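Q: Start with the shorter request: fold the first protein.
A: Done. Sequence, then structure:
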Amino acid sequence: MAKAVTLQDLVRDLAEAGERPAVLTVDGTDVETRTYGEIGTAALGLARGLMADGLQPGDPVIVVGPNSADMVTVRLALAAVGALTVPIDDLSSEHEIGVVVRASRASRVFTSASHLASVRKAVAETGGRAWRLDAGDDETPGWRALVADTGPELPKLDPEQATVLVYTSGT
């Protein structure tokens, strides 16, 4: 019987995948390339930092923002920990973001600058914390502030464990 593979295994494999391009970000004429190795290594470092911060497998974590290499890295880190990722559409309103944060009982949120005010309001109500998907600022650090070179061992995950909780408008 074949060994069951988890998303955590995928992240570990990415960290060892080397310099092959994985994600290209195009902004006008500027092209940024992140390799599989860069993304996997950053995701594992963020996973260690999140665990050191108290994140446990199954804990819900909101992610809201546009698609980006940083979003890919954060989502992979959450999968490596076994967290329950709760994605919110980038076009969601402040009210919709607040509803999902409260309903999911997420105590951690990763957000883009464009949603920062809405997220700050929602997490203030729940006692949660937020990190930005970009460089961060004085009030809200970026996700890189959590990256740790060392930390707790990643937990053993059940391949059947839920990894994503999607809220929809019912359509």
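Q: Next, the second protein, separately.
A: Sequence, then structure:
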Amino acid sequence: MTVFRAFVPNPALPGGVELAEVERPVPREDQALVAVEAYSINRGETFLLARPRPGWRPGQDVAGRVLEPAAGGGGPPAGARVVGHAWDGGWAPLVPVATDALVELPESVSTVAAATLPLAGLTVLRLLRAAGSALSLEEHWPALLTRAIAAEPAAALREGGVIAPGFDAEL
């Protein structure tokens, strides 16, 4: 059994989290094992720390490198720089991420910047799917969204800088 240190919930502590030894994750056939270089903290996760589900560990938005590609095939190869939305466990050195929730990163985007995007991107995607037809964006929103995201967004959303200049009114 290989163990490493990761953040786990502990509602009895201030902040609701502690570093503890955990077992190395075993990915499913459809998951790649990602060596985490950066992760972001989501508001929802902070609420879950107060009343965690049994076995749940924080960490959804991650960026890093594929240590082991998905055994079932598909997805990025070993060594690829990636960003993904893990189910949980991303506040750790290693996390399994489903290949359909993982994309390769261009060299021009840092892992720190990329880790801030998965949940925010999913939120925008759901909004555009729900409102896209009403806004007549169904064919144009992928290109618009690609142009609208800043090349190097701020590491913390409270700092702003995620939306590229000139796109605030459109989004």
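Q: Describe the second briefly.
A: Residues 125 and 144 are 12 Å apart (CA to CA). The chain is about 20% helix and 25% strand.
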